[in-house]
Design goal:
alpha+beta, four-stranded antiparallel sheet, 7 helices, Glutamine amidotransferase type-2 domain-containing protein
């Protein structure tokens, strides 16, 4: 059992309140996943800003100062800014995402550090332990931006580590959180490895994220990629997947994993349980519904 929550804001006057809205949503899902938690934040001025790319990293034993000093010597990156948020460190620079990721990966090669997020709009923060305590560690209530997703994990198929926590972000500004399990993830993992994909964990959810990134790289849009996932993945799942401009929900053919969507003119939100939505402004006027099996629900900014 895990907990999923997320919100896309339509009303720009709510952007300064993204963290204030997302934090109680996450905390109300804490009972569904006490092992670890993570968030994906789009447009949070603490980690992203126009003209810059951001890389989110679990540094492990590597000191932040080591990374800062090494990055300062990379003339391709220009000025680099580094922000620590609990177990996660976010690095940003005025360059393309792949240029920054390449520079960071070269420095961290062989250290055991893991890149967990990348893009122009997205920062990923995650760690192990009580989700409510992690929200405080991330100072989540101060987050700003236009979109955020969060996950609380009860581990059932792989280790309890920050690297195994959700969200999984394996392509620029793409983010996935998952409640359930994929029965055939090992088969699809081998297929993706044969295509050249390298995995950071043995978590089945990472297989889903890399599958979507692969389909998007082949030209599918997010809606088509999610339909392709439904065709190829066996198991029980609810997925919330976001990009820089999209917010999408899909469930498997049985749809036994709980999910509820709420929509108003000011925002669209989803959660594993209604209790995570109950405090949102205007919830009493929202359109509330349970997503149908294998129906892709997608909203764009």
């Amino acid at each position: 059992m895990c907990g999923i929550v997320g919100i896309q804001l339509r009303d720009e006057t709510l952007y300064p309140n993204l963290g204030a809205l997302l934090t109680p949503m996450l905390c109300h899902a804490a009972h569904r996943g006490p092992d670890s938690a993570g968030v994906g934040l789009y447009g949070d001025a603490r980690y992203t800003r126009p003209g810059f790319s951001s890389i989110s990293v679990l540094l492990g034993e590597v000191e932040v100062s080591q990374v800062t000093t090494a990055l300062a010597r990379d003339r391709d990156l220009g000025a680099v800014e580094v922000t620590a948020a609990g177990p996660t460190t976010v690095i940003r620079a005025a360059t393309e995402p792949w240029t920054l990721e390449r520079g960071v990966a070269e420095i961290l090669d062989g250290t055991g550090a893991i890149i967990i997020g990348r893009g122009r709009e997205l920062a990923v923060l995650k760690g192990t332990g009580d989700p409510s305590a992690l929200a405080a560690t991330f100072d989540l209530t101060r987050a700003t931006g236009y979109q955020g997703i969060a996950h609380t994990r009860m581990a059932t198929e792989s280790a309890v580590t920050s690297a195994h926590s959700h969200p999984f972000s394996v392509a620029a500004d793409l983010c996935l959180v998952h409640n359930g399990s994929f029965a055939n993830h090992a088969t699809i993992r081998r297929q993706l490895q044969a295509e050249g994909h390298v995995f950071d964990s043995d978590n089945d959810s990472e297989v889903g994220a890399r599958y979507l990134a692969h389909k998007l790289s082949e030209g599918s849009d997010l809606e088509k990629a999610l339909r392709q996932l439904c065709d190829e993945f066996d198991g029980f799942y609810t997925l919330l997947v976001t990009t820089a401009d999209s917010f999408a929900v899909v469930r498997d053919a049985i749809a036994c994993k709980p999910a509820v969507i709420a929509q108003t003119d000011s925002w669209v939100a989803m959660a594993s349980e209604y209790r995570s939505l109950a405090g949102l402004p205007g919830i009493d006027q929202a359109r509330l519904f349970e997503p149908e099996p294998e129906e892709v629900y997608l909203w764009q900014r």
